[in-house]
Amino acid sequence: MNLLIMGLPGAGKGTQAAKIVEQFNIAHISTGDMFRAAIGNETGLGLLAKSFMDAGNLVPDDVTNGIVKERLAQEDIKTKGFLLDGYPRTIDQAHALDQNLADLGIALDGVINISIDPAKLQERLSGRIIHKVTGETFHKVFNPPAETYNEEDYYQREDDKPESVARRLEVNIAQGQPIIDHYRTQNLVHDIDGDQDIDLVFADIEKVLSGLK
């Protein structure tokens, strides 16, 4: 099977991706792993990507798309299939992926979209607090340190503050929705309710993927 997995930050995409890869024995292709491998192997595109990263710049789409295509051309993809995680991030990357898959003679079988109300994700992501002395991590709603606690003893990372979380979700929705719409026109999108227990989410994913095999 050749799959994409999509979902907003906090939707549990990483957890479900790991379960899919283990259960269905397909190659897990994440953006970070691809870049590290290309740079470590000193491929032409890997070295080019490194030059941008070392300069503190974003890697251009054409380089990213090329690294993805190199990975998809490797032998294990032919025998095992793949789960793409963290790519495509923009509609332009989605169009490039379509072309690269066509060039390689690979068909995409499905797009798993883990869907949760953004307001609930806001609560999930902005509730993390860290104890100033011990460094222990808690959650205001799901894992509070005690029934009553002194908020002055805890702090939040900048990324966890409500305004930062809201901006991150807005950016991801703006970038991700056109991609989902693009694949929906190809009848590839399978929406999964992410607002349930982790095992129940995966059970729903299993049902979908078992029907694709």
From TrEMBL:
PROSITE patterns linked to this entry: ADENYLATE_KINASE
Residue positions binding ATP: 10-15, 128, 137-138, 196
Superkingdom classification of source: Bacteria
Pathway annotation from the record: Purine metabolism; AMP biosynthesis via salvage pathway; AMP from ADP: step 1/1
Alphabetized Pfam families for the sequence: ADK
Enzyme class of the recorded protein, top EC level: transferase
Binding site for AMP: 31, 36, 57-59, 86-89, 93, 157, 168
Entry keywords, A to Z: ATP-binding, Cytoplasm, Kinase, Nucleotide biosynthesis, Nucleotide-binding, Transferase
Catalysed transformations (reactions): AMP + ATP = 2 ADP
Keyword Flavoprotein: no
Residues covered by region (NMP): 30-59
Alphabetized GO MF terms: AMP kinase activity
EC number: 2.7.4.3
Cell location: Cytoplasm
Function: Catalyzes the reversible transfer of the terminal phosphate group between ATP and AMP. Plays an important role in cellular energy homeostasis and in adenine nucleotide metabolism.
Comment on protein domains: Consists of three domains, a large central CORE domain and two small peripheral domains, NMPbind and LID, which undergo movements during catalysis. The LID domain closes over the site of phosphoryl transfer upon ATP binding. Assembling and dissambling the active center during each catalytic cycle provides an effective means to prevent ATP hydrolysis.
Family: Belongs to the adenylate kinase family.
PANTHER family: NUCLEOTIDE KINASE
Subunit structure: Monomer.
Protein's name in the database: Adenylate kinase
Gene: adk
